[in-house]
Design goal:
With 173 residues, the chain is mostly helical. Helices cover 73% and strands 3% of the residues. The chain contains 6 helices and 2 strands; from the N terminus they run H-H-H-H-H-E-E-H. Strand 1 and strand 2 form a beta hairpin. The radius of gyration is 20 Å and the shape is elongated.
Length: 173
């Protein structure tokens, strides 16, 4: 039953990862296109398209926040575990548990502050017909997914399933 729940959680997080990666890439492509159009427009007319800067800023923020979950999901975040590797399997398990607990706690803290943060971001963005709180929505979605990812990893660690990025380095893991 627990293994089935873990598999379902991993599957759902995998779908979310692909969706968020696609959304981050769409944001990047849109930034490229609107800035290329602006460069051509400026060359032809000598004038700027005023909407390009605010939309590029919004898309950059969204791209970063969508990518936030993907980075952790794919384990491409920066880790410094040289000394942990030297201390062996028990240190690896202990730091995995500790980092999972801390990350879930931080994401929950961030999510607990979400209503107050969103409520304080009122008014339209400059030259964009969206409320300011839309800047933060992808951050909170990513934070919820990061919390779910690390919560699942915590459960796996507690029942003895090795960490994917470490299992090749430590045969005992």
């Amino acid at each position: 039953m627990l293994n089935r729940g873990l598999e379902l959680g991993e599957t759902l997080l995998g779908y979310a990862e692909r969706l968020f990666l696609a959304l981050a890439n769409v944001c990047l492509a849109a930034m490229l296109i609107i800035n290329a159009v602006n460069i051509v427009w400026r060359g032809v007319t000598g004038q700027n398209l005023n909407l390009v800067w605010p939309w590029t800023t919004l898309l950059f923020v969204w791209m970063t926040f969508f990518g936030f979950f993907v980075i952790y999901r794919r384990a491409t975040d920066i880790t410094v575990d040289y000394f942990v590797d030297l201390m062996g399997h028990k240190a690896l398990v202990a730091t995995r548990l500790l980092s999972d607990i801390i990350t879930v706690g931080l994401m929950c803290l961030l999510l607990a502050e979400a209503p107050r943060t969103l409520a304080s971001q009122v008014g339209d963005m400059e030259l964009i017909p969206l409320q300011r709180y839309w800047l933060s929505v992808p951050l909170f979605l990513s934070a919820a997914l990061v919390a779910a990812h690390f919560f699942l990893d915590l459960i796996k660690a507690l029942i003895g399933i090795p960490e994917a990025r470490k299992s090749f380095e430590h045969p005992e893991a």
